[in-house]
Each structure stands twice: as C-alpha cells, then as structure tokens.
Amino acid sequence: MPSLPVELWLEVFRWATLTRSSHALYATKYCPFETSTAAVYHDYDEAKWTKRALSLVCKRWRAWTAPLLYEDIVLPLADLPLNRMLLGNDEHREDETAILPCAHWVRRVRLPYSSTIVNAPPPFPIEAVRVLESCYSVEVLVRTTDTLSPLAFEFDTGCPPLPSLKRLDWWHHNDAARTGGINSLPHVLKNAPNIEYLSIGGEMWPHFLNEPAVHLSHLSTLHLRRLNAFFVLQMSRWSLPSLQHVIFDQIQNADIYWPFWQSFGAQIRTVELGVSLKFYVHDFLPLVFSGCPKLEELNYHVLFTRVPRIDRPQESIATIGLHALSNGFFRVGSPEFWSHLRQHFEAFTKQTFPALRRIKLYGEWAAVANDGEFEHLAKPLHERGCVIEMA
Q1: Do 86 and 106 form a contact (C-beta atoms < 8 A)?
Q2: Rounded CA gap, 316 and 81, in Å?
Q3: InterPro entries, per this entry (predicted)?
C-alpha cells in the first residue's frame, strides 16, 4: 500500500462516500431545489454499501472509516456489534483493543415508528430511544412510516432531550402520536429547541388541535410535504420568529393555507414549489403573492407550474429561480413547450416585477438556452437590466 498521510486517506474516504444527495440528507440551511426524495434514498444505499466495503478492507481502514460508517444509522440496530459500539462496553478481544463508544460519531438517525412501540407500561424504556439519547451529537432525526401493516401503540412514551438536533424530518402517525413523547411532534420539538430545518407531512386527526403550542426560535426553513387542513391549522398556531424559507412539495387544496399566510406570510422571504402538477392545476402562485407581501425569492419548476396571474405589482421579488425538470405534459422543444415558457417569461415584466434583478436557471437548460427561440424570450429581460444565469 502506498505510504500516504492519514489526513489524505481520510479525505479520499470522505469523497468516496459522498453522493449527489449527501448535502440533501444533512442540510440545515435552505438551498434551492434539493434532491428529490426518491433519488436521496437510492443514493443513501449506494453510500452505505461503499462505507461498509471500505471498512472491511483491513483493520486500519476500519478504524479510519468508523466515523463515516456510524454517522448515519437506522434504529433499532439489527447489527449487535454496532449496538455495542454505540453504547460502549469494556470487552476485550485478542486481536483488538476495547470497543470504544462511538455514539459521538452519529449525525443522522432514522427512527421508524415500528421501533418506538411500547409493549409494557412505563418505566420500561424503549431500546431505540435509549440509543438515540446516547447519540449526543445527532443533528438530523428522521421519522418515517415504514410498514403498511398496523402498528399497536398502547402506552405512553418518553422523549430524551435533543439539544444538538438541527433538523427534523417528520411524517405524522396518528396512532403513534396518541402515546406522546418521541411519537409526538410537539413533544419532540419542545425537547429540540435548536431546530433550524423542519420537514413535515401527514394527515392529522382533528383532536390533535389541542396539542401544546410550539415555539422554535431558530427555525428558518419549513418544508411542507403533504398536509391536510387540520395540520395546517395546528401549525399556524406555532411561534416561529426566525422563519424565512418555505418549501411546498405538493398541495391538496390551495385554500387550506390561508391560516398559514396570516400567521407567517409577512416574514417569509423565499418560497419554493416542488415537483407536482397540482401547481399547474391549481392557481397557487397568486396565493403566494398575496400571502407573502415581502417575498424576495421565488423558485419553482417551470413545466409543473401554471403561468402566474399578477393582480398587483410584486414590489419585493428580486430573484426568480426556474427549474427545467421535464415531464410528459410539455415535451422539450415542442410548440406547447415554447408557448408555456414564453408565457412565464412574459409575466416577468417591469410593471409586475419592478424589483426583479436576476433569473437563475436550475437543471438541464443547456439545450434550451442555445436555441434561438430562448434568446428571443430573454431579450426583453436583458433590456431592462435583468440578469439570466445558470445556477
């Protein structure tokens, strides 16, 4: 093996285990158009197997890659040696030193609801929660519904303090939420006061409207996946003084967000619309404009979104991000494609968007941007001093 400095090997291992979705998994700050959920899960498996393969080469490589191997875990731990390493013990083996605690390496934990079922009344602890509590450096917690089979939640649960947590990806589970603690979103948020990024989704039952109020002083990014009216109403009662960026994955009914606009619209500076033709079927952008009077940045997938109808000038919007993700509705290069794109560009006039200074193009725009038709569309914007650039 070539003699290289340890620091260089660590750098090589880090780059070898990064994927295009790595940033999306750990991001706590807003970044336009993060990787889609499907791509994230595919890349996660790829990175996981790469880490395991590197750790099996030799003892030295295992020691060097251990922080990478245990930075992202799923609870409960099916691998008993991993469990011992996380919690620590005093066992010695002939060929190795003592297994050292490695809970401090864990940065991201995926905690499916099947791992937080309580089969006996308190004070019997949940093993997965005990392991989570030992991971005192965890920054990202993911709660997912992992099975279609019914899960029985009968007894109350607890929730450990999570002061290091900066991001929470939460899918609401009504039966689980009845038991409180680690299964209840308000309880987890109360124990995680330093949350900066919150992703939520699910269909909430109406009796959860009586849950305690939530105050998150550091939350700046809110990612709304799929919510019903009760969830939106409950969320609208929260206190989020630092909220600035909101991402909508999809919408069921555009009108259910009025309580949200009334509570937080004046402080929102960035809105992003996801990959959903619901934003084409429903005229959602006018609701964004009326609900966010101080909006500075708007990002959306241009082929999935209806042409914005502007009732009054948008005085504060300085940046618009357009993603070129294609669909079967508008074939790239077809007359329908150019007509749709032209209507979007024509909406960005000086009268309707007087503060607009920049249009950023995300995704695969190269072929479109090299077409003479695109130059024709962009000319009026260039003439008014608006910069069009590739992101």
Answers
A1: yes
A2: 56
A3: LRR_dom_sf
- Please provide residue 132's backbone torsions phi and psi, each rounded to the nearest 5 degrees: -60, -40
H/E/C letters for each residue in the chain? Answer: CCCCCHHHHHHHHHHHCCCCCHHHHHCCCCCCCCCCHHHHHHHHHHHHHHHHHHHCCCHHHHHHHHHHHCCEEECCCCCHHHHHHHHCCCCCECCECCCCCCHHHCCEEECCHHHHCCCCCCCCCCHHHHHHHHCCCCCEEEECCCCCCCCCCCCCCCCCCCCCCCEEEEECCHHHHCCCHHHCHHHHHHCCCCCCEEEEEECCCHHHHHCCCCECCCCCEEEEEEECHHHHHHHCCCECCCCCEEEECCCCCHHHHHHHHHHHHHHCCEEEECCCCHHHHCCCHHHHHHHCCCCCEEEEEHHHCCCCCCCCCCCCCCEEEEECCCCCCCCCCCHHHHHHHHHHHHHCCCCCCCCCCEEEEECCCHHHHCCHHHHHHHHHHHHCCCEEEEC
Beta bridge partners of 93: 96
pTM above 0.85, yes or no: yes
| Start-to-end CA span in the chain (Å) | 41
Nearest to 73 by CA among 5, 3, 157, 135: 135
Handedness of CA 75, 36, 292, 259 (dihedral sign): negative
| Separation of alpha carbons 273 and 245, rounded Å | 11
Cα separation, 85 vs 103, whole angstroms: 8
Give the residues across from 323 on adjacent strands: 301, 362
Q: Around Cβ 195, how many Cβ atoms within 10 Å? A: 23
Residue 37 has pLDDT above 60, yes or no: no
Mean pLDDT of the chain: 86
**Region for residue 103 given its phi and psi (left: phi exceeds 0; alpha: psi -120 to 50; beta: otherwise):** alpha
Rounded Cα gap, residues 240 and 222, in angstroms: 10
For residue range 264-308, list pLDDT tens digits in order. Answer: 999 999 999 999 999 999 889 999 999 999 999 999 999 999 998
Give the rounded distance of the alpha carbon of 33 from its chain centre. Answer: 10
CA-CA distance, 243 to 340, in Å (whole number)?
Answer: 33
Domain ranges of the chain: 300-391
Contact of 133 with 165, CB cutoff 8 Å? no
